[in-house]
Every structure is written in C-alpha cells, then in structure tokens.
Amino acid sequence: MRLLASILLLGGLVFAQSQPSSQSQSKAQSTPENEQMAIRPMNPDAGQQRIVKEVRHELIMLPYYSIFDDLEYSVNGGTVTLMGSVVNPVTKSDAERSVKKIEGVEQVNNQIKVLPPSPMDDQIRRRTARAIFNSDGLFRYSMGAVPPIHIIVDNGHVTLKGFVDSEGDKQRANIAANQVPGVFSVTNDLQVASKSIAQK
Question: For position 86, what pLDDT does the model report?
C-alpha cells in the first residue's frame, strides 16, 4: 500500500494528507474511512502509518525548513520518496539523513529540488512575504516558527503553498503576491483548511 503525504502547516497543527493506491482502494471500499486512509480490522498497515507520522515529524523539525521551502513525501512499503523545493541544499541532505534513520525505512528516494541561487529571487521572496503578511487580515499567518503559508520562488515565478482559513484569505494572498515587482507569475496552491478537513 502506498501512502502520499504533504507537509502542510496550520499554526501549530500539521496535516498529513494520505490516500491508498488504486490497487488498495478496491480492497478497502467496503470499509471506507474519511480520516487519512481506509483502516480494516487488525490494521495490517500500522507499520506504514507509523512511518508516515515519523517522516512528517522529522521533516518539520529540520533546522533550516522555512516559509520559502515546500516539502512533500510518499511512503511505499519501506521506501520513502521525498519531493518539493528548498532554498538551502543542506535542507535536502538533512531531510534524507533524518528519514533514513527511521525504523522500517529501507530506501530514500530524494527528489527534492534545490532552487537555483538568485539574488532576484531572494528579493522576491522577502517582498512577497511582506506583501502577504502586511495585507489586511493576513498578518496572523506570519505567526509561529513555520507559518502556514509557504512562498516558493523559482526564476521569478511564485507558487503559494499551505493552508488558509477562508477563500477570501486565499484570494487576498494571491492579489498581494501578484502585485510584487519582478514577479512573472503566481500559482496559488493554497488550500482552505476547513474544506480540506471536511474532505478527509
């Protein structure tokens, strides 16, 4: 069974989105669960559930993980695939090293992209963060060690990741990012927390 998960932060709460593979879905249709995955009696996938939780914990504890990084992962048996984009190459290597030490992890496929160094992108990151968090009603998202809105900048193209409380906040963040000088495009992948929880 394969589990997919994303590191998505909302204040001090972490959401891990998981879903069974297409093969396991057909077997679990008789006992559907809205929370993370279908769990049958005796829970034969408890080992993978534990790995998912421990991978999530290790990643959010990385010392250089910030609002300008995005980390995602999948678990397939004893193999963990790391994905996303980070500014610091150390974050990529630290992520792999931390996950490898988890009991039950046999292999780590590290597909994390290290964003190219760029003074222009660095400026856009700072400007976009100021623009978003200074917007009406969005300052609260700047609180916490790792705020729930993540700003990924790659050659002037901005992608917003994470969670907000409402569609209005999502749109306000999008407008703020689009007004930043030097930004070529904005992809708004922010999710509304209430909707995401309801869909689980």
Answer: 97
Domain enclosing residue 137, as ranges: 119-199
Mean pLDDT, range 49-55, rounded to an integer:
93
Enumerate long-range contacts of 172-179, CB under 8 Å, 24 or more apart: 172/135, 172/136, 172/137, 172/138, 173/132, 173/135, 173/138, 173/141, 173/149, 175/135, 176/128, 176/131, 176/132, 176/134, 176/135, 176/138, 177/128, 177/131, 177/132, 177/151, 179/131
Do 17 and 35 lie in a common domain? yes
Q: Report pLDDT digits (tens) over 185-194.
A: 999 999 998 7
Q: What is the DSSP string of 81-125?
A: EEEEEES-HHHHHHHHHHHHTSTT--EEEE-PEEPPP-HHHHHHH
Are both 90 and 18 inside the same structural domain? yes
Would you say residue 135 has pLDDT above 70? Answer: yes
Q: How confident is the model at residue 157 (pLDDT cuts 50, 70, 90)?
A: very high
Dihedral angle, C-alpha 109, 66, 36, 50, nearest 10 °: 60
Tally Cβ neighbours within 10 Å of residue 122. Answer: 13
Report whether 43 contacts 35 (CB < 8 A).
no
Together in a domain, 94 and 47: yes
What's the chain's Rg over C-alpha atoms? 18
